[in-house]
């Protein structure tokens, strides 16, 4: 299925916000962390799956991915 750039962008912005809220980060800090530790790459590659899950689930899953890539948020 094809998703518009607008759909992907809107979902990703909300995800970055939710991730930051979970870990006490600003939007900028959240984006930087996710970008550095490959969370944004995962969302880009697997958007079809990611957007069907709850934000809570995806925040925890991608936090785990980031930890495996060297991130230290717990």
What is the H-and-E element order?
Answer: HHHHH
Count of DSSP H/I helices:
5
State the end-to-end CA separation: 34 Å
Based on secondary structure, the structural category is mainly alpha
Major sheet size, sense and barrel closure? none
Instruction: Please indicate the count of domains.
Output: 1
- Backbone shape: globular
User: What low-confidence regions span 5 or more consecutive residues with pLDDT below 50?
Assistant: none
The residue fraction in helices comes out at: over 70%
Mean pLDDT score, rounded?
96
- Can you count the beta strands? 0
Rg value: 11 Å
**Strand content range:** under 5%
Quick gist of this model?
This protein is mainly alpha-helical. The protein has one domain (about 5-65).
């Amino acid at each position: 299925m094809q998703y518009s750039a607008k759909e992907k962008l809107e979902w990703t912005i909300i995800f970055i916000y939710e991730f930051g809220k979970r870990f006490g980060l600003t939007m900028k800090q959240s984006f930087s962390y996710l970008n550095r530790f490959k969370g944004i790459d995962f969302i880009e590659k697997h958007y079809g799956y990611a957007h069907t899950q709850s934000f809570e689930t995806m925040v925890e899953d991608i936090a785990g991915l980031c930890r495996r890539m060297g991130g230290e948020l717990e």
